[in-house]
C-alpha cells in the first residue's frame, strides 16, 4: 500500500479503496484499465463465493465512479493473465504487473479467503527505481 500512498491514496487499506482515492490524482496512467480489470475480477470472485457483502460494497463504489461510467471498455483486454499498471511518481514512469496469490489448505478453509496482491516491475527502469528505494 506504500505505492498507493505515493499516488494520493493513503487513507485506505484495500486496493479498491486505493483506486477510488487515486482516481483524481492522475498518477496512475492506465487507471481505467486497472479499475475495469479489478471490477471484472471482483465480480467473478463474488459469483464464485455465492455472494460477499463486503466485496459487493467495494464493487458498487468502484463501478459508480465517474471515470468508470465514462470509460471506453472496448479498449480493455479482459483476457489478460495479469493486470498491467503504469504509475507516474515524482517524474518516474513505473511499469508493473499485478498477480494474486491465494492461500488454501484442507485444514483451514478460511485460509482460502486470504489473497495477496503482488506487483512486479516490467522493465529495468522500474526495477532500478524500487531497488534504490530499498537502500
Quickly list its features.
3 strands, 6 helices, three-stranded antiparallel sheet, 43% helix, 135 residues, alpha+beta, single chain
Which outline best applies?
globular
**SSE sequence, one letter per element:** HHHHHEEEH
Structural class: alpha+beta
- Counting structural domains, the number is 1
Measured distance between first and last alpha carbons: 19 Å
Helix-residue proportion: 40-55%
| Average of pLDDT | 83
Low-confidence stretches: none
Using the CA coordinates, give the radius of gyration.
Answer: 16 Å
The main sheet comes to:
3 strands, antiparallel
SS summary, helix count:
6
Query: What portion of the residues fall into strands of 2 or more residues?
Result: 15-25%
Q: How many β-strand stretches?
A: 3
- Spatial sequence of strands, sheet with the most strands: 1-2-3
Could you characterize what this model shows?
This protein is of the alpha+beta class. It has one domain (2-134). 43% of the residues lie in helices and 19% in strands. It has a three-stranded antiparallel β-sheet. A hairpin with a 2-residue loop joins β1 and β2 (92-102).
SSE topology sketch:
Blueprint: H1 2-6, H2 15-22, H3 31-49, H4 53-63, H5 66-69, E1 83-89, E2 92-102, E3 115-121, H6 124-134
Helix pairs in contact: 2-4, 3-4
Describe the structure concisely for a colleague.
By secondary structure, this protein is an alpha+beta fold. It has helices at 2-6, 15-22, 31-49, 53-63, 66-69, 124-134, and strands spanning 83-89, 92-102, 115-121. The radius of gyration is 16 Å and the shape is globular.
Amino acid at each position: 500500500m506504500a505505492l498507493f500512498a505515493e499516488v494520493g491514496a493513503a487513507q485506505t487499506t484495500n486496493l479498491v479503496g486505493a483506486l477510488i482515492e487515486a482516481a483524481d490524482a492522475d498518477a496512475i496512467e492506465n487507471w481505467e484499465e486497472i479499475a475495469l480489470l479489478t471490477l471484472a475480477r471482483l465480480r467473478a470472485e463474488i459469483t464464485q463465493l455465492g455472494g460477499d457483502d463486503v466485496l459487493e460494497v467495494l464493487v458498487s463504489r468502484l463501478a459508480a465512479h465517474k471515470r468508470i461510467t465514462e470509460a471506453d471498455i472496448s479498449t480493455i483486454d479482459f483476457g489478460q493473465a495479469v493486470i498491467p499498471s503504469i504509475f507516474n511518481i515524482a517524474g518516474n514512469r513505473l511499469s508493473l504487473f499485478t498477480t494474486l496469490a491465494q492461500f488454501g489448505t484442507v485444514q483451514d478453509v478460511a485460509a482460502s479467503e486470504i489473497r495477496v496482491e503482488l506487483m512486479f516491475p516490467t522493465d529495468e527502469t522500474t526495477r532500478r527505481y524500487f531497488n534504490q528505494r530499498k537502500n
